Amino acid sequence: MRMEPLNLDRKGLVKLLALPDFSPIYRKADQVRAAHKGDTVQIRAIVEFSNYCRRQCRYCGLNCKNTTAERYRMTPEEILACANMAAEAGYRTLVMQSGEDPYFTPQLLGELIREIKKTGMAVTLSCGEMPYAAYAYLKSCGADRYLLKHETADPEIYARLHPCGTLENRVRCLCDLKSLGYETGSGFMIGLPGQTLETIADDLLLLEKIGCDMAGIGPFIPHPQTPLKGCPAGSIELTKRAVALARLLLPDINLPATTALGVAGGESENDIFSCGANVIMRKVTPDPYKQKYEIYPAHFEKTDIPAERAFLERRIRALGRIPL
Length: 324
Ligand code: SAM
Prior knowledge:
By secondary structure, the chain is α/β, with parallel strands linked by helices. It has a single domain (38-318), classed as Aldolase class I (TIM Barrel). 41% of the residues lie in helices and 15% in strands. It is built from 13 helices and 9 strands. Strands 1, 2, 3, 4, 5, 6, 7, 8 and 9 form a 9-stranded parallel β-sheet that branches. The longest helix is centred in the N-terminal third of the chain and has 15 residues, at 23-37. It starts with 9 loop residues before the first helix and ends with a strand. It binds S-adenosylmethionine (SAM). S-adenosylmethionine binds at residues 59-60, 62, 97, 99-100, 126-128, 148-149, 151, 189, 218, 220-221, 223, 260, 295-296.
């Protein structure tokens, strides 16, 4: 049965998000994914190299007001050893993520990028907001992509949850990254207090406006040492709906099954591949750091880079998709 063309403006998106039966939209998103991205699932390694953060994002366990967090910084040697192991295990991309940690200056990050690029892997950075000149310098050192979620497109919710920043500056960063030629990733959380279906529609439309190449959409998960500790977690169903609509709105972008979805939704991390997603990240952060990168409470198995990659490849093949 052919579907009527979908209305993907703000009103149309709100209506779709609220549908009693979303299954035809999931099917459509899966078809669009297959037509535009093929059947591969890109597996990307992520190393969380520092959990120091100067910011106070009210939902995040890394915020500097959380005095119970055990802080760590990986040494450059540890980061490079981890990168080499990821490359040997078959990863083609290393995502370098951290809190906003001024210890890792653009110069230090640049040296690390140059070394990591020697492995042949692409480098994605996810280290927060920086001035244009820093992003430009890191690009000149070989960084390929940058992930910086806009978190919420509602300026009031943004201001309430981010005492240290503005939505305007977040979007300025994303536009700078795009103009510098980075493959630019944004994204947002589902279930932040005050969020409505209209906010989610605005989030989706902001991805389009920025011209994102990638979007990470994941559920909010409350962390007990943050001001949002008593708030309910974001809905898994709504997260999947937002991913499917992102695929319809932006057919060519990369859409990861976010780690938060895997943590909160268990098996939903698998279903998300039939809702439009085509990317997954795997933590290669060594122990004991992995468990200390606690943006939300989660239990992660001990790090075994080759074994975890092989396991994930089998899971992806079992879904009829091709791991890359
Ligand atoms: N400092 C970098 C930045 O600001 O983009 C990267 C690190 S930050 C911890 C990575 C992402 O974690 C954020 O973009 C946010 O969406 C997500 N995050 C933080 N706390 C979360 C929570 N409680 N539930 C779900 N996602 C969360």
